[in-house]
Amino acid sequence: MGKTYINGIGCVSAQKTFDTVFLEEAVLNESLNVLPLELPTYKDYISPIAARRMSKAVKNGIVASTIAMKEAHVDTFDAIITGTGMGCIEDSDKFLKAIIDNNEEFLTPTSFIQSTHNTVGAQIALGMTCKAYNFTYVNAAVSFESAVFDAKMQIDADESKTILVGGIDEMTDYTQRLFKLAGFIKNDEEGSFPILNSKSKGTVFSEGATFFVLENKKSTSTYVEIVDIEMVNSLEVSEVESKIISFLKQNNLEVSDVDAVVLGINGDMEFDNYYKSISESAFKNTPQVYYKHLSGEYNTASAFGLFVGSKIIKAQQIPDILKANAITKSEIKHLLLYNQYRGIDHSFTLISKC
């Protein structure tokens, strides 16, 4: 059974993550309930002519994947696997609006063609003329984890050696309005939107693209080893701790062996008790990290969480802006990531220092 290493990372998010070492220029903005992207200069990565026809998701995916590839010093892959919850929703909106505006007549197919969920993976493959396995997972809040799980199985089975994996989602004005009506996004009238110890429902949303180069061997750019990953559709709050203990046990670890835990706390008081239950029990003496106050919430925000966890292990340091408690450890060897969204789609990812 092989081992899976992260050898390159690229990230476009609500923070300046595309040309910095980690989060040196991170800014905490609690005055907005939808965080805007910190956009790269697209012309540095994509020709302006091609970029004109691309949605945000496609452009951000290409930028993030290019950065990851450059860092890992690879230019071809045995597989490209992406995860997305909403897909290219911007082009979907355009096509549906065109149907209404044109009374279902004289429609151009461009927006429809570019609205499919696998558009990002396809565009990346076209850009490098990669004809290898190309798959997109659309599994809500575990879309990214599904992609990583697939990649890890292929590497474990020695079917692939180098795989590009990414999580991409975008936000549009129309989707934003719908999410506010549904109560998924915090009420505009609150004025301030803290994530930690929040006393209101809903969360702060955003969008982003995070890509990883996974390989079966270590290199000079290696961040961490992905030891194991598991997904569970539904759990009760009282079941999370026992599930984590079981997950760690199958990897010959105990709770005390975890040197830091990265939690997907998103400020929704109705569901953050999943994290509170373990932070006050199993991991009360463990350094705790949170990140959605910087990235915002979206279906594949857990990819940003893996970016954070990988950087922490490589740097052997937790930036103050990420700390959910004051506990520290002299060495961070094993790190656990736990995420869920609105009480379902629980994911557990174990990464370790190489």
UniProtKB/TrEMBL annotation:
Task: Tell me which PANTHER family the record gives.
Answer: 3-OXOACYL-[ACYL-CARRIER-PROTEIN] SYNTHASE, MITOCHONDRIAL, POLYKETIDE SYNTHASE-RELATED
Tell me a Gene Ontology molecular-function term this record carries.
3-oxoacyl-[acyl-carrier-protein] synthase activity
| GO biological process assignments | fatty acid biosynthetic process
Q: Does the keyword Transferase apply?
A: yes
- Gene Ontology CC terms: cytosol
**Keywords, comma-separated and alphabetical:** Transferase
Domain Beta-ketoacyl synthase-like N-terminal positions: 46-218
- UniProt name for this protein: 3-oxoacyl-(Acyl-carrier-protein) synthase
- Output the InterPro entries linked to this UniProt entry: Beta-ketoacyl_synthase (IPR000794), Ketoacyl_synth_N (IPR014030), Thiolase-like (IPR016039)
Keyword Ribonucleoprotein in record: no
What species is this protein from? Flavobacterium noncentrifugens
Cross-referenced Pfam families? ketoacyl-synt
